[in-house]
Amino acid sequence: MDETAPTGGISEEDRLALADAMAGLPADQRACVALCLADGWSHSDAAEALGLPLGTVKSHVARGRARLLAALTGGSDDA
After folding, report:
1. Is 45 helix (H, G, I), strand (E, B) or coil?
2. Are the CB atoms for 30 and 37 separated by under 8 Å?
3. How far apart are CA 7 and CA 24, in angstroms?
4. Are 28 and 62 in contact (CB under 8 A)?
């Protein structure tokens, strides 16, 4: 396999940018985003696994998504 080939349709540059953006999230937001958006967990399952209220997980995912979008597109971070 060619080690320079993109993984999952994402270029190496984009993958690194996403990793940097994820690292910039607060730990709770990062955990919620990783579980719900990257791994496809339900908000309920993530809340149970992380020991957080469901509403908190939903808020963390929404705010984390907004921060990632802002970081990756150069937009403002309103979250």
Report:
1. helix
2. no
3. 22
4. no
Q: 79 lies in a domain?
A: no
Residue 25 lies in a domain: yes
Q: How many CB atoms lie within 10 A of CB 57?
A: 26
Q: How many domains does the chain have?
A: 1
In a domain, 4, yes or no: no
Give the pLDDT confidence of 11-62 residue by residue, as tens digits.
899 889 999 999 999 999 999 999 999 999 999 999 999 999 999 999 999 9
Q: Which pTM does this prediction carry?
A: 0.79
Q: What range defines the domain where residue 69 resides?
A: 12-73
CB 25 within 8 A of CB 38: no
Give me the CATH number covering residue 39: 1.10.10.10
The overall average pLDDT reported for the chain is 88
